[in-house]
Amino acid sequence: MKIISTSEEQTLELGRQIGRSLKGDEVICLVGPLGAGKTTLVKGIAQGMEILEGYQVRSPTFTLVNEYPTKRGKIIHVDFYRVKDLDITEFIGQGVLLIEWPTDLTYCDVIIRIEFLPEGRLIIFENAKSLQLTDKTFSW
């Protein structure tokens, strides 16, 4: 599935839809260049999973791992931009694991690739049947 997002709000809404569709133990890998919207998508996923009040999604570039409680389980947000050898196996199954800059795609249940387009972002889903989303879900 491929979707074009022309705004930050559309990317957030896409994330919300993804968040609402999750069971709670998926490993989702986010691939794309700096500034593509990976963390924005994670913010939307957290909103869709109903992140608890007082928590705010931030890029884990310097902290490596951020955890967020939601009404639908835990989000574990990992960033491999500065580190290449972090062992994530302990996080698998502990909640929704969202990995930015993954070094090993074999752990990924779903891969979301984000690419720049002149009109916005092209968001490409691989192995996304478990998300139960279709092109018709997004009518912007």
Automatic annotation (TrEMBL):
One of its GO terms (biological process) is tRNA threonylcarbamoyladenosine modification. Gene3D superfamilies: P-loop containing nucleotide triphosphate hydrolases. The keyword Lipid metabolism does not apply. It comes from the Bacteria. Its main location: cytoplasm. It is found in: Cytoplasm. InterPro entries: P-loop_NTPase (IPR027417), T6A_TsaE (IPR003442). GO terms for molecular function: ATP binding; metal ion binding. Pfam families: TsaE. Belongs to the TsaE family. This is tRNA threonylcarbamoyladenosine biosynthesis protein TsaE. It comes from Hydrogenobacter hydrogenophilus. The lineage of its organism: Bacteria, Pseudomonadati, Aquificota, Aquificia, Aquificales.
